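Database export, one record per block. Field names are fixed; values are copied verbatim from the stored entry.
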Amino acid sequence: MKSARWLVLFGAVAVASALPAAEPDRAAPAVRVTKNVTYATAGGEDLKLDLAVPAGQGPHPAVVLFHGGAWRYGSRADLSRRLPGDDGKPAPSVIEAVAARGYVVASVGYRLAPKHKFPAQLDDARAAVRFLRENAAQYRLDPDRVGAGGFSAGAHLALLLGLTDPPAGEPRVRAVVSFFGPTDLSRYAATPGIEAAYMVPWLGPAVRTDPAVYRRASPIAHASADDPPVLLVHGTADLIVPILHSEMLLDKLRAAGVTAELLTVKGEGHGWFGPVAADTTAAAVRFLDGHLKGEK
């Protein structure tokens, strides 16, 4: 099977996943890709996204995707770059593969630590959604049907985008997909080396003494009854972001009455390849179809 492969990072650990090609009996529409679109300027930087738009007048539902990298590494190109498929030829990038299923898809670049501390990354995520909604007609998307997804640190940002209160007058995203995202960052305080290497550069030194810093940045602390549906995808052998993160958030969301699902991937760690990856990402697209297209 041809597949699009991409890198998602948490610290120095590289992992990969895959999205299956469209089913043979379901022709993939043409997709137009535009890269290096400036969606905002903040902290002295032009913030950019890469965009894949399917054929047809639309308006199409939209998905914003966030790369991994411990909030200090990685690039939007991780999700918009074509890599060799199983036959050695360039396969569609992640955003192209998802767009072929009828979505406008953005791979969003965001400011990175240690130069930019939290909540700069969440501010950027919100700015990207705002930009797409303001330019909905140009990109043929439906501003009322926007979802978010991400991998590792990017999944954390997607969760915060869905679970935190948006700025006044802005609607929340309609659905969130998290691939092995951390949900309770205070758990990293138990490992001083991890805290010093990843939390302090991103959250600042106050994280060592003020528990409120971890709470503000932890999706689990923001779970409430008005949250959108959430799909959590997690490997049972993940040692970097243990599956407990997704299990705890699942319980918190369900207790609040939120539609939430956990797809566990037995024996897999912080990412996976091949048929398992094809299955999990296809499940993610079906979840988005159900909540952004009304398809079950």
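Remark 1: The domain at 3-183+218-293 is CATH 3.40.50.1820 (Rossmann fold).
Remark 2: The first helix runs from residue 77 to 80.
End of record.
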